[in-house]
Amino acid sequence: MSALLEVDGIGKNYGSVIALRDVSTVVNAGEVTCVLGDNGAGKSTLIKVLAGVHQHDRGRLLVNGTATRFTSPRDALDAGIATVYQDLAVVPLMSVWRNFFLGSEPTVGVGPLQRLDRKRGKQIAKEALADMGIDLRDVEQPVGTLSGGERQCVAIARAIHFGAKVLILDEPTAALGVKQSGVVLRYVAQARDRGLGIVLVTHNPHHAYPVGNRFLLLKRGASLGCMEKSEITIEELTRQMAGGAELEALEHELREVAAE
């Protein structure tokens, strides 16, 4: 069976700046591919290529085994690839159920008599959120009253409801505390278990390792490798993320200075 999504030797330049160089990984159904790297590693550029915001300059992007070149985010959505960005694209003062649909609300009537089907919209949103483990008494409440983890869940449930096969999550735990991060990772695992292919973009190996199946490490736009979970421990993943060799060299240098 072909991977839902695959990048093979992907490269991207912005003028003379090499943002991505020879990056390869796969996203399979029912698995989580984690993309890790520090600021400036190329994570955002890779997301934008996968989401159709930018086109790649080199390599191949394959969807279900077929080489593809997205010309817009709509192309990616039509191919079943949904991206939940760090800012979530929610309207804090708007109700939970309206945020769930955001422009795709169910309606009744035709022509000038067409109007929102509020009852059906609220029911669909409530059921979809309940499937993800959030049972809200009132989906009319402003989404801004929800916790950070719950807002992430609204965005994830929305993507699943509208037919996503691949879900790209951009730093979903970056602004959350320990407890809320755990809540979001539970939702990620639920989406994985429903058969979606997940791309989890993060700079935190301790958030990636419990839910990840493979780990793509980026540094300055280049791949440091793409390892299956069985091939790397959390300690080694953390060491590589932290720049283990550089830290060891710095520690050695500081010891020499202290000894002088």
UniProtKB/TrEMBL annotation:
Keyword field: ATP-binding, Nucleotide-binding, Sugar transport, Transport
Cross-referenced Pfam families: ABC_tran
Molecular functions per Gene Ontology: ATP binding; ATP hydrolysis activity
Keyword Nucleotide-binding appears in the UniProt entry: yes
All residue ranges annotated as the ABC transporter domain in the record: 5-245
Keyword Transport recorded: yes
Source species, domain of life: Bacteria
Protein name: Simple sugar transport system ATP-binding protein
